[in-house]
């Protein structure tokens, strides 16, 4: 009998400890995580009708709280909604919070520890606490220009950054959507709008799987910048190296042959310098470099540029990690070296790689937040530039910059040339089949003192359309930034 009582007592104590531990976790350890969860509807409903802080670009609100109705005192409103939807995300009763609305929810809702004394002050005055405003690094003129440069109906992304600071000046994608329709207080309309939006291929409802930060795309020849850095870093190659440039590359034991790029003048030479190979975007020289150096060398250099790595805390938006595959056979390594096979990169990743070259080999953390201000306009957060990683040496970055400059001045990137300014660039064409490609341009200017880095990708286009929508559009952005 005593033994049964003892066992019952032990079981009761164990159950009490389990319940106490679970409550402690929910209330203390996991409280912030649970509150921040985009699908925590209780947290959303608690703050849904409150006066959230504004998200600002150039001093104007792109997301703000406006007077609601009798049942809900405030309503979230998005201005120029399609232009900024990929950044703001939405604040929805049924579908949670995404984008900066989710990432900066504590500040916008006024529940952040940074606003503790503001909340106390408002309570003493009998007022409803108000959220902080979040000012972005985005330049509204450049954002609008970049968005308009992607034709309606065309899937594409453009990222514009300051390579010296990591500040994002513009980040857009199409197709887009109207977050007002998903943030409406009319639940039936909210659900209908959401169900329509998710049917649109490539729409940037979730930054971690679509748009500039989440769309994992074959990068094509812009990846040759990774090969070039790896080659120079190995010590086996230098500015005077002569590279093999056959019309195609064969592999032992298989019938497959890797062709050289047919769109430029690669066929005119059987050997090539680095400058010529990059100017004309020849395939076989870089495939040869990868076979010579081996998979690990290319993978390690890709990692130094950010493939598979964290992008820091200042971006705020969710993102996908870019991928360089492993366990490659000879043909797979050759294809991967030219940005095909299973290599996948986000537009933001290519922008960061290019910016690292522009910044003397140092990759700065991407940053979207210029300042967070309390309701009385006091600055409570002002992110400073953060060096994320060293991608290569200043000497190698300088040499690659020289070659990228010749891609624009003498090669197939000439559409990006700006009169009176040295522009460094690299084009890319990743084949998708059926004559369609991902068409890329990435570069920076001025080459000798970079002020702006631009990455453009258009998805599912033919070669002619891709050439019209990448380098020439990058030129327009370079001119707009440099002439401000």
UniProtKB/TrEMBL annotation:
Q: What domain of life is recorded for the organism?
A: Bacteria
Penicillin-binding protein transpeptidase domain: residues covered: 156-479
Q: Which InterPro entries match?
A: Beta-lactam/transpept, Beta-lactam/transpept-like, PBPA_dimer, PCN-bd_Tpept
* Molecular function in Gene Ontology: penicillin binding; peptidoglycan L,D-transpeptidase activity
Pfam families on file: PBP_dimer_2, Transpeptidase
A single GO cellular-component term from the record reads:
plasma membrane
Q: For this entry, list what GO says about its biological process.
A: cell wall organization
Q: Where is the Penicillin binding protein A dimerisation domain?
A: 52-134
Supply the name of the protein: Penicillin-binding protein PbpA
In its UniProt entry, the species of origin is given as Arthrobacter globiformis (strain ATCC 8010 / DSM 20124 / JCM 1332 / NBRC 12137 / NCIMB 8907 / NRRL B-2979 / 168)
